[in-house]
Amino acid sequence: MSVSQEHPPGAVWPGVGGADEDTGDLIGYGATDVARFVPEPPKNPQRTPFERDRARILHSSALRRLGAKTQVLGPSSDDFVRTRLTHSLEVAQVGRALGQALGCDPDLVDAACLSHDLGHPPYGHNGEQALDVVAQSIGGFEGNAQTFRILTRLEPKTLDSTGRGVGVNLTRAGLDAVAKYPWTKGEGPGGPAGRSANKYSCYEQDREIFAWMRTDAPAGRRCLEAQIMDFSDDVGYSVHDVEDAIALFRMDPALLADSAEIVTLVDATRSWYGGSMSADTLGAAWERLVRQPFWIRSYSGALADAARLKNLTSQLIGRFISAVAGATREVFGYGPLTRYDADLVIPEQTAAEIMVLKGAAVRYVMAPREHEPVYLRQRTELFDLADVLLEAGGRHLEPVFAQAWNEAADDAGRLRAVVDQIASLTDTSAQAWHARLCGMLSAF
């Protein structure tokens, strides 16, 4: 019997009206929130369901792989730069602090932040764009949807009654907290022609568990924990990527006292992220930041400058958390805020400051790299890998993905198995696979 047969439409889902786990001392969360798609008895009554969620992410192979996946600069470019793993750890610290300030369960927010980038393929957003091309005939590729697929299908941990993998079997609230775009492709804001055509958190093939996860959730609305995760990710990008840019001498703080350079920075921000904020708003945000006593005026790499740079990141993170926590409390009060009790309130000035910092990373790191030969090489590697793996009839796939290939009912299922395989690779292993396999292209 399949899971869908066990829980047909209209049936009571696991945990609703009788949780498979006790909520224990959790405040603001009920039986529906801690239910798991495949019910499990608690293994250790000393741990909450959300502590178990966090532990499952920490011990997952998908999290480990992030250590060799590109954040902004590739992991082989410099020992100092952040990888997807270190970025995720830092996002989790930011999210945990903000979640605690608002009364969310800190382990739930922590787990969501650790999970948020699990679906990113090798080579960061460059690789994501390449795999989206490869997967066009089966609905495309999206990093957030791939994250959901890993958590609910690909990561080996729990099986249903038929032996089908259901991933790490997180709680309903745990999965929902990772849903940055809580809809399938084309079914969110704007419909098929709107934003949800490109940004979504579920492939059509994974709709069953996604629908279970969204039981009783307001359509298209993110839970508070997911909003905290998303905000913390933005803080990580804005602050830590600027730190990397300065530390690697790609961004000179001294130049940013020049008004012409500030105009260029603001233009780059609006070009990359859209014109939702005016040039005046972004320029004023930059001026506020550089007037702060903790702002770094120059950078030589010496110990004192390195310490000032680290203090800059600390001060900025504290500034953003305090502003958002205070604004949210002013609107929604001072009791525990969880799930759909509240929405995160981000002051306009704070949003502008974060945006212009993200723009600085674009201006000095990301945009220049878009035209580097390495970007074309990376995309070509992934296209080549897709070709050779498809032509090989599943022979070169790792066992988990080979099984998916063999059990697929059609070419679409086989292509998804190949895409899942490539997405699981790190930057390093993608290069190794390409070197090993792509000389075989002419042999098939």
Concise overview:
The chain has helices at about 5, 30-35, 50-60, 60-65, 85-100, 105-115, 125-135, 145-155, 170-175, 205-215, 225-245, 260-275, 280-290, 305-330, 350-370, 375-390, 400-405, 410-425, 425-435. It is mainly alpha-helical and about 450 residues long.
Extract low-pLDDT stretches. 1-19, 74-78, 440-444
How big a fraction of the residues is strand? under 5%
Number of strands: 0
Rg over CA atoms, rounded to whole Å, is 22 Å
Fourth CATH level, the homologous superfamily of the largest domain: Hypothetical protein af1432
> Any idea what the CATH architecture of the largest domain is?
Orthogonal Bundle
Order of helices and strands: HHHHHHHHHHHHHHHHHHH
The first-to-last residue Cα distance is: 39 Å
Structural class: mainly alpha
Q: How many DSSP H or I helices?
A: 19
According to CATH, the fold-level topology of the largest domain is Hypothetical protein af1432
CATH class category of the largest domain: Mainly Alpha
Q: Give the count of structural domains.
A: 3
What coarse outline follows from CA principal-axis ratios? globular
Give a quick account of the main beta sheet: strands, pairing sense, barrel closure: none
- Could you tell me the mean pLDDT? 88
